[in-house]
Amino acid sequence: MKTTKVLLGSRIKELRKTKKLSQDQLSEKINIDPKHLSRIEVGKSYPSLDTLEKIADSLDMEIKEFFEFKHQEGNKELVKNIGEFLKIVDDEKLRLILKIIRAIVH
Fold this sequence. Notes:
Elements lengths: L3 H15 L4 H8 L3 H8 L7 H10 L16 H12 L4 H15 L1
Helix pairs in contact: 2-3
């Protein structure tokens, strides 16, 4: 399982890329060394709260958005979550779910 530090860094990188900014561009905007931003993005270093605020401002985001990384869960976790939902649905819904999965896969 990924650590919070790795998930946070990955999320920052993901959001930076959606804004079409390079590490150099973002690090210049927030006045930190590009190597430090790189260490943050790969999960080797936590950003300070001040740096996190600057990153959020530069990306026009709220800090809380950096911690929305449920979509980054590994496949095992996704399969587990799907399995939990499947346990509580009736046969009719299971058939419908199967049809939807077949349509998506094919």
